């Protein structure tokens, strides 16, 4: 479990093919000091298991399913990545609950600088638009953000200078692919509630579910 608060920028030192997957070696002195083999770590919002430690670097493996659902396959040697270690239960939850389970890949459609922020719009596949709500939470490449503006399957977030400086956001350009994780509460509610004719249940059905 993560919070969407990026703790360190790592550098991809090696990208090695591994059957249908990829093995990444990432240099991250601060994170590596805390990580052990079998620990979890979020890499651009995707949860990975550490398989090896090498000094100030660690190694993770992205298998076929991970590469299919994320933008990690585009990473090359020298690329920067957002890193976050799992949250501790005795600490404040600074962002929102993030599992590190990427739902889909979005595409940056517009970047609009403002005086003290940067508005960034992202398009997601049409079938995922239902998970976006006004002022709701969303994870983008592991960064916890609040939706500022909303379209049918496009949303806009406001990026403050601190986020721009301490994440890979400053590298984004229109057309860039990003990992998207929607708020887990909405996904669970949709799964648990019976749907009728493609719409959410009526009041009687909600009562049957204990609401």
Give a nutshell description of this structure.
This protein has 211 residues and is mainly β. 15% of the residues lie in helices and 39% in strands. The two termini are 27 Å apart.
Question: How would you describe what is shown here?
Answer:
With 211 residues, the chain is mainly beta. The protein is 15% helix and 39% strand. The chain is built from five helices and twelve strands. The chain has helices spanning 29-32, 64-69, 161-166, 184-192, 203-208; strands spanning 8-18, 21-27, 40-43, 46-54, 57-62, 80-84, 104-113, 118-123, 137-140, 143-150, 154-159, 177-182. The strands form two sheets. The chain has a six-stranded antiparallel β-barrel. The protein has a six-stranded antiparallel beta barrel with strand order 7-8-11-10-9-12. Strand 7 and strand 8 form a beta hairpin. 29% of the residues are buried. The mean pLDDT is 92.
Strands, helices and their partners?
Elements: E1 8-18, E2 21-27, H1 29-32, E3 40-43, E4 46-54, E5 57-62, H2 64-69, E6 80-84, E7 104-113, E8 118-123, E9 137-140, E10 143-150, E11 154-159, H3 161-166, E12 177-182, H4 184-192, H5 203-208
Antiparallel strand pairs: 1-2, 1-6, 2-5, 3-4, 3-6, 4-5, 7-8, 7-12, 8-11, 9-10, 9-12, 10-11
Major sheet: arrangement of strands: 1-2-5-4-3-6
In total, the number of strands is: 12
The largest β sheet comes out as: 6 strands, antiparallel, barrel
Q: Ranges with pLDDT <50 over ≥5 residues?
A: none
What integer is the average pLDDT? 92
Distance between the termini: 27 Å
Structural class, judged by helices and strands?
mainly beta
Overall shape: globular
Report the portion of residues in β strands: 35-45%
Helix content: 10-25%
By DSSP (H or I, 4+ residues per run), the number of helices equals 5
- Pattern of helices and strands: EEHEEEHEEEEEEHEHH
Radius of gyration computed on alpha carbons: 18 Å
């Amino acid at each position: 479990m993560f919070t969407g608060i990026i703790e360190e920028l790592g550098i991809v030192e090696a990208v090695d093919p591994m059957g249908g997957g990829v093995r990444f070696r990432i240099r991250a002195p601060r994170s590596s000091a805390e990580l052990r083999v079998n620990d979890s770590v979020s890499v651009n919002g995707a949860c990975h298991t550490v398989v090896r430690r090498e000094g100030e670097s660690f190694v993770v493996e992205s298998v076929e399913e991970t590469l299919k659902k994320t933008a990690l396959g585009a990473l090359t040697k020298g690329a920067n990545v957002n890193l976050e270690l799992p949250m501790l239960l005795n600490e404040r939850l600074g962002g929102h609950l993030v599992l590190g389970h990427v739902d889909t890949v979005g595409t940056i459609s517009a970047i609009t600088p403002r005086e003290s922020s940067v508005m960034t719009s992202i398009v997601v596949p049409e079938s995922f638009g239902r998970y976006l709500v006004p002022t709701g939470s969303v994870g983008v490449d592991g960064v916890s953000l609040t939706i500022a503006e909303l379209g049918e399957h496009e949303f806009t977030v406001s990026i403050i200078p601190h986020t721009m400086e301490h994440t890979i956001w400053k590298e984004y350009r229109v057309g860039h692919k990003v990992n998207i994780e929607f708020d887990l509460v909405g996904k669970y509610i949709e799964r648990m509630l019976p749907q009728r004719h493609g719409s959410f249940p009526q009041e009687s059905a909600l009562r049957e579910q204990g609401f």
